[in-house]
Write a structure and sequence with these properties.
Two copies of one chain form a homodimer. Chain A is α/β, with parallel strands linked by helices. Chain A is built from 13 helices and 13 strands. Chain A has three domains: 74 residues, Orthogonal Bundle (Arc Repressor Mutant, subunit A), CATH 1.10.10; 120 residues, ATPase, nucleotide binding domain (Nucleotidyltransferase, domain 5, 2-Layer Sandwich); 148 residues, Nucleotidyltransferase, domain 5. At the A-B interface, α1, α9, α10, α11 and α13 of A face α1, α9, α10, α11 and α13 of B.
Chain lengths: 400, 400
Amino acid sequence: MNRVRRSESDPVGSESSGPLRLLRETHEERVLSVLRTRGPLSRAQLAEQTNLSRATLSSIVQTLLNKLALVEAREVGAVRGRGRPVSVVSLNPAGGLALGIDLGQRRIQVTISNVAHEFVASGAVACADRTPWTRRLQLALDLVDDLTTRHDISLIALAGVGVGIVGPVSTEGSSGVGRSADRIALVRDTLRARFGVPVHVDNNTRLAALAEAVWGAGAGVDSALYLRLSYGVGGGIVLGGRLLAGAGGAAGELGHISVDRDGPACSCGGRGCLERYVSLTTLQEQSENVLDARDDKARDLLAVAGARVGEVLAAACNTVNPEVVVIGGELAETGDHLFKPLQTAFRRHTHSQVHRSVRITRAALGPDAAARGGIALVLTSSPASPNAVLNAPDLEASHP
Amino acid sequence: MNRVRRSESDPVGSESSGPLRLLRETHEERVLSVLRTRGPLSRAQLAEQTNLSRATLSSIVQTLLNKLALVEAREVGAVRGRGRPVSVVSLNPAGGLALGIDLGQRRIQVTISNVAHEFVASGAVACADRTPWTRRLQLALDLVDDLTTRHDISLIALAGVGVGIVGPVSTEGSSGVGRSADRIALVRDTLRARFGVPVHVDNNTRLAALAEAVWGAGAGVDSALYLRLSYGVGGGIVLGGRLLAGAGGAAGELGHISVDRDGPACSCGGRGCLERYVSLTTLQEQSENVLDARDDKARDLLAVAGARVGEVLAAACNTVNPEVVVIGGELAETGDHLFKPLQTAFRRHTHSQVHRSVRITRAALGPDAAARGGIALVLTSSPASPNAVLNAPDLEASHP
């Protein structure tokens, strides 16, 4: 057993006894885990997030910088005209990659980032509505090959793959029902065989919600509700940095909240679902130019759609009372034509305590949001490690 | 520095070095925290909940039994005609008390439990609708005196007080708006001055939700949505054993989800709120006997009310997709007259993935649910301790 040595610059001893080393490793893992989940942080932010004293943190960060597990950099975005640029630490970009794939209805997107939250490559291909899933997967794999070749990226340090698919996915992507379960198994098995790393699968709209909460319009808030208004209408809820899955994998299915109790039956099993009234598919049946705000008919359609969306958001926000509501999809790009009637209906149907505390905003990310969400899923999942992250290690298991 | 000794019965050493002792203390605190939150558990359940190996757990439990921090008992409820009674461990009932107070609209309830989740005294007094808050507090304090005298209870080991009040309470009971903030400050200051322990304040319907999730119809599930149908209509959401507060303290305000977009204005600021249609106040204006199922008019009213409640629950469940929906309050006691139309409307307006995964059930606890929820709030809050519970200790802070 080594003796514990202490000095000013290394208060807890770098050559330490077994249990002391274990405790220190726990702290190192806490720092690594926070940086992996949140991206580059200043030392002050890191101290707050890890709940470690400045002195302990300083020693831990120094050790990790020496080991090249971390790197130090100037935060580019922090300059903003006042104050000095802030020094931030992040995981070493060479420490690993995460691959995000969105197997969308009409579009396959692949995005690659490193563990320092730097996006290093991104690409997409269109596909037909009814493209079989094996073919969609092949398109995604071809895209991965293309991107890694063009950008000279080696996937040897790939940490995991996060995949967005259409339709509900149960808790932790572990199951689905009928065809959905088959699809999830196909995606997971194919990608696991190809890359040999953990594969996380979730609904692609939910992944877009997660990406908006990590990098987009909901960055830095504790609770965000996301609604996507496109050919389909879906959503997702992020609480404390994690997606709410729901018991049946259907949390955030805001497109299937009813806006007319006697409305038409929906394929989901419900009746009068929001999606039937405000999806781009439905609206384009009424006016081909619905996204063109110069068109009178389009403006009328958007006003009614905005009111219906506002009512559904009111019901959802009276339920979870999030800090921010993020609205994405093509319809959100019509701006005030949708948002003004939406806000009016929202205010009219929410508890004052709810609408006082919530901010409604447009999505900040582009069409790669779901693929980025796949990356977020990889980065927020614990890396394979002999010690549990964020928990004290089990003495017996890790120190026999 | 003591030498680390190891033996078969005490694999990690009871007289140990500083850091080893710290790690061991972390494990002990993990065990104590889980038992405080969940109540008596078998060793198998405890191993699962603490994520400790059976060997480590066995040693930790033995030490804590020796210290009288824990006691061992036969689980009464586990006999159930088959198998042997299961041996459970719990915190020592002498280890402390928790006081739950419900300052309801028409009723003051006080309930006292020990840290082993045993309820040791409970009582209530009625009060008029407009009783001032200072008077309500005095009634509660008189009731505490009465109960402790009658049951010979000493509050010297009181760990905390949890209080339910009417109206929204922001995150962690730290603030409110206007009169609500004043009320919360009055309650907290009065009780802190009287008992000298931490005082937790939350909305009393939310506390009833928490109690149902810990001891009632939602016990053992990961996500529960609670709806209370009484003179007012409110609710609460419990995820992973914790109440969802919401950004403005209004999560679970299901009584203010709109069922008629052009309905009458509500004092909450919304319009066509569920509460306006199904509160006992409204229903009794239409029939004094609304709770009497032998009355034709009552049955018709309950059928319509059930349908409206089912629609609102559908919207809420499409949003959070909980495992169980628990319905409490006087209206729930009418049974199938309410539940049948409720279930029909619910099924008609939910995504199939949602209604397949959710169970709707009546509340299991009585009128002391909110006071019990106050107790749950005390027991699920970290006890004041030099080391953070469920987190590895900060070496600097706890081992200078």
